[in-house]
Amino acid sequence: MPMFRRISEPSYYRHFQCIAAACPDSCCSGWDVAIDKTTYELYQNCRHAKLQPLFRQHIVRNTEPVGTSGYIPYALIKMQNSHCPFHESDGLCLIQKNLGETALSATCASFPRSYNVVDGVLELSLNLSCPEAARLVLLRDIPLRFGVQEAEVEIPSEQIDSLDTATGATEKPFRHFQPIRAFVLATLQNRTYPVWQRVLLLNLFCHQLGLVRPAEYDERIPRLLEDFSDHVQNGTLRDSMAQAETMPELQLQAMKLLIDHRLQLGLVGDSFLQFARQFRQALGYATDDSPQDVALRYQTAYTEYYRPFMEQHEVLLENYLVNYVFKKLFPFGPQQGRLLESRSIYEEFCLLVIHFSLIKTLLIGLARTYRDSFTRQHAAALIQSFAKTIEHHRPYLNQALGFLAAGNLKNTGGMTVLIKN
Fold first, then answer.
1. Helical ranges in 189-306 per DSSP H
2. How far apart are CA 125 and CA 153, in angstroms?
3. How far apart are CA 230 and CA 363, in angstroms?
4. Does residue 114 sit in helix, strand or coil?
5. Tens of each residue's pLDDT in the chain, 421 residues
6. Residue of 311, 400, 289 whose CA lies nearest to 355
7. Beta partners for residue 10, in sequence order
8. How far apart are CA 353 and CA 355, in angstroms?
9. Which residue, 284, 268, 243, is CA-closest to 392?
10. Which of 13, 17, 313, 323 is the most exposed, fewest CB within 10 Å of its CB?
11. Cα 101 from Cα 314, distance rounded (Å)
């Protein structure tokens, strides 16, 4: 297992502790679980009376890649009705119970922790698909902070996404990653703007950043950062953002299609199915109303319930986006890694907007469901369920990007349609 001596972590990280059987969800259901070669061989050679037949029956070799990354997990746990066969009714893991934590695969041992390496520094964060991680991150009122410190940390994964700002690679301006990331995080945490305007500012920034040619990186990117920092500080783009047209019917149609498509792909947990049902019921999809009537109901729900709630609790979305940006090495993505996929800077932004807009759309439906009883805990539970169902499904995310392109939405105008209500 690799050892690191410098780490960077968000302020919440060291407060995380798995609550095991007390958890309202299970990290052992709702997705495929990859098994590395070392763990596979350990399981195949196991002589434990109870576990040996289960390992032979439920751990299978795999030949299919994950999405378009080219990464092929060595083996998978064969799920039973979307649930891990080693997950017991008391909420605990049969493998860990009998063989100890060291017998867990790298996937199981590390979740919900996420690891990146930037310039040799190990970056630690949490996936919000874990209920306790979601509670810890989303319900914080103070801004998330990130610090670098000296510490020895050993992690269970041999293959970690990484980025080297000293590289000579030119497909993206990697050597400018740190100031770009600092600007993105500062913009997302600038509470003088509502969250949707912060995302719109990044829409313009990422679009222009993606247009810079490699030969101009060193000259134009510092100037671009300076110009946009001035725009944010001086508020020169506020009027144009306020005047941008809203298209609730198109926004809702696009998000509804993406929600329905994810449900059709299967491996969806009960909690997300429940949230999807509440969304449809709240907006009246079971009726014979026209798309215009449903869109009007959607916009009314936004105005009467969602917007007043978010005016008090926008930190939920802020914290989600900040955690996403840090965890995903946004807006570049990893330079090296087992799940490497080739995306442009603006495509990385479009992915962020897909996550943001789907969450917003579902929350609008949930706000109409609970109305004056809508709480931060309701919102956090939905975001956790969403993260588990959407964030880890790489084929779906690639299909969602393709849908945006086919609908002529993968551009600044299309992103504005999805961002603004």
1. 195-211, 217-234, 238-243, 248-264, 270-283, 291-301
2. 14
3. 33
4. strand
5. 678 989 999 999 999 998 888 888 877 776 778 898 989 999 999 999 999 999 999 999 998 887 666 678 899 998 887 788 998 888 788 999 999 988 998 888 889 999 999 999 999 999 999 999 999 999 999 999 999 999 888 887 767 899 999 987 788 999 999 999 999 999 999 999 999 999 999 999 999 999 999 999 999 999 999 999 999 999 999 999 999 999 999 999 999 999 999 999 988 888 999 999 999 999 999 778 888 999 999 999 999 999 999 999 999 999 999 999 999 999 999 998 877 788 999 999 999 999 999 999 999 999 999 999 999 999 999 999 999 999 989 999 999 999 999 999 999 999 999 999 9
6. 400
7. 146
8. 5
9. 268
10. 17
11. 38
Contact between 334 and 69 (Cβ < 8 Å): no
Q: Which of 226, 146, 143 is nearest to 179 (CA)?
A: 226
CB 420 within 8 Å of CB 246 = yes
Closest to 405 in 3D by CA, of 414, 394, 416, 392: 414
User: Which residues are 35's β-sheet partners?
Assistant: 75
Find all residues with CB under 8 Å of 307, minimum gap 6, and list them: 421
Dihedral angle, C-alpha 19, 16, 82, 390, nearest 10 °: 150
Q: Tell me the whole-structure pTM to 2 decimals.
A: 0.93
Contact 297, 284 (CB under 8 A): yes
Alpha carbons 39 and 74: distance in angstroms, whole number: 10
- Distance of alpha carbon 402 from its chain centroid, rounded? 18
Helix pair 315-327, 177-188: axis angle to 10 deg = 170
**Are 135 and 16 within 8 A, CB to CB?**
no
Hey, what are 380's tokens?
């956090």
Give the integer Cα–Cα distance in Å for 30 and 160: 23
Q: 208 — alpha (psi -120 to 50), left (phi > 0) or beta?
A: alpha
- Using the structure block, give the residue that is written with the tokens 């945490």: 189
* Structure tokens given for 119: 């310039």
Q: How many Å apart are CA 276 and CA 281, to the nearest integer? A: 9
Residue 111 and residue 366 in contact, taking contact as beta carbons nearer than 8 Å: no
- Contacts for 350 with CB less than 8 Å, ≥ 6 apart: 401, 404, 410, 415
